[in-house]
Amino acid sequence: MVASAPAPLAVPVMSPVQPVAGDWSVLPSWLPVPGMGVLAANSFLLRGRQPMLVDTGLLAVSDAYIAALTEAIDPADLRWIWISHLDADHVGNLDRVTALAPNATVLTSFLGAGKMQVAGMDASRVQTIEPGTRIDLGDRELVPLRPPYYDAPETLGFFDLHDRVLFAADAFGAVLPDAAERYADIPRHALAEGLRNWSSLDAPWLSQIDPRRFAASLAAVGCLTPLATLTGHLPPVTGDLGPLLEDVHDAWCRPAAADPALMPFSLESALAAVAAGSSRARGDARLHDIAAPGPSVQATATPASLAR
Ligand SMILES: [Fe+2]
Ligand SMILES: [Fe+2]
């Protein structure tokens, strides 16, 4: 009898809470990504001396999320709720959680607090995280940090000095063919491709930065030597982070990463489309010449040259 392939995920689902490392657990859920596969949407629970929830999951699985959380811990025991950034997949159940957790203070960045206010969310229990500080949780300190890439400028991750756990927010996420319970279960080629695809969508600016500086950021992450890496969009990475860092490096620090053809919404691509349209409309080949594919695009297409 031939085993049938699992049916594609049609709606977001919540998965059971899993231990990760030290005092950390993951509350995993999965989102279908039409035409591409599935994406993990994780939040995390620290059951230390001062318990902390990191992000608050998807609204689409709200009842299942709250059930999983309350099974894992009495929310009244939560002392902190860390909000990495204000994207919907990270604050989906914030209102419900804060209502159940009257003793919790919300930790987020200055910009994150501002976005909460703009969105009409309750910011009265927010304590903003200041650059260069450490967060004292009684039995451990967290060092706030900006992950090597992200999709919202308020994003803050951290390094837990006690358990040597890195929380990287949206960095290192990957869209996968199927949901995976463990990082080790993901085929390497699927991980590399999914990581490249997702980072292209979620942090398209990576194609515009200096690859040497980005490589230095990745190297700095490697020097942290985390025992586990928590990311919003991949099962927790336990053990050596090196292969994953290599995948990110291969995706964005190689010469091919700068190819405008790989970025269909890039300004270079838009210029080529404008040039083609202008040429057809006016019989003017000048813009088309300027926007010809290749290195000359960046060298010659300036506002001044277009205005001549
Ligand atoms: Fe995000
Ligand atoms: Fe996210």
Automatic annotation (TrEMBL):
Keyword Hydrolase: yes
UniProt keyword Hydrolase, yes or no: yes
Top-level taxon in the UniProt lineage: Bacteria
A molecular-function term among this protein's GO annotations: hydrolase activity
SMART domains recorded: Lactamase_B
Domain Metallo-beta-lactamase residues, every copy: 40-218
Listed InterPro entries: Metallo-B-lactamas, ODP_dom, RibonucZ/Hydroxyglut_hydro
Assigned keywords, A-Z: Hydrolase
Name of protein: MBL fold metallo-hydrolase
